[in-house]
Amino acid sequence: MAGRGMRTPGGNGRRSRANGQRKANAGAILLARRRRARRRHPVTTVLLRLLTAIVLSLVLLALAGAGVVGAAGYLGWSALTADLPSPDRFEALEFQTTKIYDRNWVLLSEVTDPTTGYRTAISYEELMDHIRQQQNDPTKPHRAWIIDATIAAEDATFWTNPGVEPRAILRSLVFNLSGESTSGASTITQQLVRMLYPEAIGTERTYRRKVREAIMAIRFTQRYSKQEILMMYLNNVYYGNRAYGIDAAAQAYFNKFAWELNLAEASMLAGLPQAPSVYDPTKNFELAKRRQRYVLDRMVELGMITQEEADEAFAEPLHPQTREGRYNKAPHFVNFVLEYLEAKYGPAAVYRGGLMVRTTLDLAAQQAAEEIVKRRVEQLASYRVNNGALVAMLPWSGEIIAMVGSADFYNDAIDGQFNVTTAERQPGSAIKPVTYLTAFEKAGWYPGTIVFDYAKVWTIPGFGKYEPKNATGQHFGAITVREALANSLNIPALQAIEVVGVPAMIDMAHRLGIKTGFWRDPNFYGLSITLGGGEVSLLELTNAYATIANNGKYVPYNPILEIIAPGNNRIYQLDRATVLDQGKQVVRAEYAYLITSILSDNKARAMIFGLNNPLVLPELDNRPAAAKTGTSEDARDLWTVGYTTDLVVGVWVGNTDNSPSRGLDGISSAALIWHDFMVKAHQDPEIARSLLGADGRPIPIEFPRPPGIVEVQVCAATGKLPIPGARTVTELSVRDGPPRLRCDQASEYELRELRAALATPKGMTERGWSSLQAYAAMVGVAPRIEIQRPTPTPGASEQVAPIPGAPPAGSPSPGGAPPSSGSRPTPPRPSLPGEIPTPATP
User: Fold this and answer.
1) How far apart are CA 300 and CA 517, in angstroms?
2) What separation in angstroms does the CA of 821 have from each of 792, 802, 805, 809, 815?
3) DSSP one-letter code for 399
4) Interacting residues of 81 by C-beta distance below 8 A, sequence separation 6+
């Protein structure tokens, strides 16, 4: 219903911004109208007041009985009026329907209290404002037909009567005294006070109630303008099918707004309030047509329309419909928004407050995501996969533009109504960027740092031996952090978490946006947390990747653009122009950029994934994209999370019951969905509009490089500062960061790991052996090597072991490493960056 369900402040089909400016004019117009009416019918006005007094007197006499003295009349009047409520305070429950829209004001869902129904109040000024806006549109009505039709059906003298119609009351009284039944004595104002004061006025068929109703109607007419009374009636009267008020009725039966009702539709709706269930056009269409004929005939009698117009309206085909279930788009997202609103504003505001909630969702993006997830999951069914989920956000603002909580919301077999995007699952290797980012910050690592990938065995207290493996079962020796992360190698990631510690990694995760995940004590997780041994939600992990995309600025996910309360009162609006500037810098921009550089390096990941993989976007001219896959134990959870400069997308594939899949990993499942959606979002012009920046212009496709990022020439074998004769490569680092040691220098930790790797041939590839031998040759490792601990130089950031052939201690180092101050052993010193602390030798 792209063209319907759109109610925004201002514009055609939207709420007027100028309502408040017209209220003063409305009062003046009404006063002038009343004066003209009095001049036209001076005798009628006096008679009406006289007849009202006579009716009240007759009823009082009937109550008091013949022969009662005047004192009884006074007491009776006091008894009638003593507990009448003020016209300013209503008894009836005030409620309005909350409406959830997408970012383009397409209606997604309506939120109602199950004990009430649908209701959206509109003002007389708003109604007439839209009628004026439609004057030049030949497809829209040029009159507010519902006003004329309602008056013709319910109260022909509405504009001139004082709230009651004395002639109708007298007629009703005569018939009742004669024992005959009658109806039609209640004016619109009398009906209104019955609705607004169900306790004080009620609906019992007694003279006393009728008099109290008449008194309140007169008081109402004295307190409110006719336009206000008419709109209060139209906003509160029940039209059937849980529709309270004309706007709800127009939406329910004809899927349009009240100002869009033509004569045929308005005359049918105007006839419903007298008996909504009897005249329900969705069930009793013929009875509804008879009632419509009556309304049209009355309009002809009152000179509102011609007989020809009435006949044309009656002959017009109508197709009334029910409202239930009509607006149920993006159900996972809508439920997520409702929980968000309830937590912020409370249930009463959500279910009865009549909020207009413009969300961040792009319905076109949502529908594309739903189709892609469903299609790809069906294709993977033979691999024992039945479900999938997707979250798409704008990284710079946190706006959620798509949220698919399952492959099929209505499929009970997969528990489709459960929203997997907010559920905690094991992320597999998709969490590794957090570990390496921590190593950049805490251990002085950079993408060129060499780590050792070999069949390492850890001894875990209380657990025993821990022998993790890479996904391929192979090992690659001395490998850079860039290649280790890009190819998702497990042993280097464990080396990283061992260096920085689990608490530091969890702290980094929380800073990046994983706020509810990893909530247990760090001792609960152990080293395997870096391989996905802890639980996070897809939504929060995607948010964490958005923080990396923002060069370390955390902007929390956000499902809301603006909220408008009744009366055009905007109670919230996202400031898109400043939201990124207001984001908190939770990690140094240069460190975050280095992670982006690795995740977007397709050549670096080619060793395992090949050059032609789903993480590249040739359909978008190979637009830079940073992405990481993940596969949990037994392939129960399959992930891909990644981003361009303007969009971050997280995907999960698996089974709702957490059963394992067969023969799948993240790159062969979730990455396919990630790829398809990334391409669709950027190629579809309608979706691409939502990816524009706050200024309405496309965001540059290249990831912004912080000024502190520099290109450095480093030794290819060790990742250290180059020395003459050593082969070098270009790598990125921070201006004041690593590397600091020369190519032929190594820390004690590095030498220990090198020797262990050389002594562990299990699963080592030819490339791995070559890299280990090159590293060993560069640092002079022999089959037997005596490691000494030179005196640390004050201010030095690395401690090195003497290397055969290196310059003597105290001499300048070609690579710029600080000279040693001596050769004697020293007392214990602080741990070196990238080194596991070990006791010093006295």
Assistant:
1) 69
2) 7, 13, 18, 7, 17
3) B
4) 212, 215
Average pLDDT, the chain: 83
Type of residue numbered 250: A
Contact between residue 451 and residue 496 where contact means Cβ atoms under 8 Å apart: yes
Distance CA 285, CA 320 (A): 9
Q: Which of 594, 625, 587 is nearest to 447 (CA)?
A: 594
Other CB atoms within a 10 A radius of the CB of residue 346 amount to 11
In whole angstroms, what is the distance from residue 390 CA to residue 404 CA?
5
Calculate mean pLDDT across residues 119-141.
Answer: 92
Q: Residue 33: is its pLDDT beyond 50?
A: no
Whether pLDDT at 88 is above 90:
no
Interhelix angle for 42-64 vs 207-223, to 10°?
Answer: 150
Over its C-alpha atoms, the chain yields an Rg (Å, rounded) of 38
d(C-alpha 108, C-alpha 103), whole Å: 10
CA-closest candidate to residue 164, choices 137, 141, 193:
193
The two tokens of residue 349 are 């505001």
Helix H, strand E, coil C: the string for 501-546 is CHHHHHHHHHHHCCCCCCCCCHHHHCHHHHHCCCCEEHHHHHHHHH
Closest CA to 495 of 450, 541, 429, 447: 450
Residues 675-712, buried b or exposed e (16+ Cβ, 10 A)?
bbbbbbbbeeeebbebbebbeeeebeeebeebeebeeb
Confidence of residue 4 (pLDDT cuts 50, 70, 90): very low
Q: What is the DSSP letter of 839?
A: P
565-571 long-range contacts, Cβ below 8 Å, gap at least 24? Answer: 565/353, 565/354, 565/355, 565/356, 566/96, 566/121, 566/353, 566/354, 568/9, 568/15, 568/16, 568/17, 568/19, 568/20, 570/9
- 795-834 confidence digits (pLDDT tens): 333 333 333 333 333 333 223 333 333 333 333 322 323 3
**Residue that has been written with the tokens 């290649």 in this structure:** 483
Tokens encoding 260: 């869009």
CA dihedral 692, 694, 699, 705 (to 10 degrees): -150
Tokens 């044309």 belong to 312
The tally of CA atoms less than 13 A away on the side-chain side of residue 266 is 24
Q: How confident is the model at residue 323 (pLDDT cuts 50, 70, 90)?
A: confident
pLDDT digits (tens, 9 = 90+) for 536-550: 999 999 999 999 999
In this prediction, residue 197 carries a pLDDT of: 83
Quick check: 237 and 270 in contact, CB under 8 A?
A: no
Q: Give the residue from 659, 675, 656 showing the smallest Cα distance to 667.
A: 675
Q: Which helix (H) or strand (E) holds 128?
A: helix 124-133
Name the residue among 512, 532, 539 with its Cα closest to residue 652: 539
577 pLDDT above the threshold of 90? yes
Looking at residue 66, what is its pLDDT? 42
Pairing of strands 387-393, 424-425: unpaired
pLDDT of residue 826: 31
pLDDT greater than 60 at residue 472:
yes
Provide the whole-model pTM.
0.78
3-class secondary structure, 721: strand
Distance CA 149, CA 614 (A): 62
Predicted local confidence at residue 576, as pLDDT? 96
- What tokens does 376 get? 């790809």
Q: Are 531 and 498 in contact (CB under 8 A)?
A: no
**Token pair in block for residue 432:** 């590794």
- Find out whether 669 and 638 touch, Cβ atoms under 8 Å: yes
Maximum distance among all Cα pairs of the chain, rounded to whole angstroms? 133
β-pair partners for 118: 243
The residues that bridge with 673 in the sheet, in sequence order, are none
What residues pair up with 391 in beta bridges, in sequence order?
403, 650
Helix (H, G, I), strand (E, B) or coil at 717: coil
Q: Specify whether the CB–CB gap between 188 and 44 falls below 8 A.
A: no
In angstroms, rounded to a whole number, what is the distance separating the alpha carbons of residues 117 and 114?
7
